[in-house]
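<instruction>
Derive C-alpha cells from the sequence

<record> Sequence and C-alpha cells follow
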Amino acid sequence: MYRRYNEAFDARDVDGLMRFYRDDVTKIDSTGDAQWDKEQVAALFHGLFQMSFTSSFVPMKEVIGEHTALLVLDSTLTFPDFEEHFITALTFTKQDGEWKLLVAASTNFPS
C-alpha cells in the first residue's frame, strides 16, 4: 500500500494520492501549519505539485497492527533554492477493509 501511495506522490497525482486519505484526516506540516480534512490536504498537494522539486522518503520504522499502522519516514524535499529535511509519521487505520491515512505529522529533522 505504501508503494502505491509513494507512486501517486511521485507521479504528482493528487486524485490518486487522496484515495489513501480518510475524509477526516489531519496533516501537520514541519512548519506547524495544519490541514484539518481531506479537501485541505488535496489543496496543499495541488499547490506543492506545481513546484519543481525532487523527493526522498526513507522508512525508519514500521508498526502494523490489526487496525492501525504507523510508518515513520526520513523525508527530504529538494527545491532549486532550498531543501526541507524532516521526519514524517503516517498513521493509517483500516476503513471498510482498506488502509486510509488518519494523521500525517512532520517535524524538522534534528541537526
